[in-house]
Amino acid sequence: MALENLTFGDVMQGVNAIGVVAVGIYTWLISRSVANRDAIDKQAAHQAEADRRIDRLESVADHAPTHQDLAELHARINDLSGAVNKLVGVMGAVERSLSRVEDKLIREDK
């Protein structure tokens, strides 16, 4: 088949074949682009959710007690413990005094 023997129909069949191949390549490229866009959108949604969760954690962390706050609380609890120990000692003395008073009153009634 020489070039001189080509008919208009033969040329149109060649153009048609080239067009079909071009449309196929275009369709494949577009579908890849759509798949990439879907993957990007999914990742963006995941990132937005992660950002929202991080913001919530940072908000909670901002209101959490600091190391200094806990140290002050520990010191106050230690002070309170010392005061309770003093009260226990004083109450022991009061109990002994009350016991002596009761003993004296019981002895006087006899």
Tally of individual helices: 2
Provide the structure class: mainly alpha
Mean pLDDT across the residues is: 89
Inertia-based shape:
rod-shaped
Q: Which range does the strand content fall in? A: under 5%
Low-confidence stretches: none
Keywords: Membrane, Transmembrane, Transmembrane helix
InterPro entries: Phage_Mu_Releasin
Protein name: DUF2730 family protein
Organism: Guyparkeria halophila
Describe the protein:
- By secondary structure, this protein is mainly α.
- The protein has two domains: 1-64; 65-110.
- The protein contains two helices and no strands.
- It is rod-shaped and about 150 Å long.
- The chain crosses the membrane at residues 12-30.
Brief summary of the model shown:
InterPro entries: Phage_Mu_Releasin (IPR020269). This protein is 90% helix and 0% strand. The chain is mainly α and 110 residues long.
SSE order and pairing:
Elements: H1 8-63, H2 67-109
Organism: Guyparkeria halophila
Pfam family, one: DUF2730
Transmembrane segments: 12-30
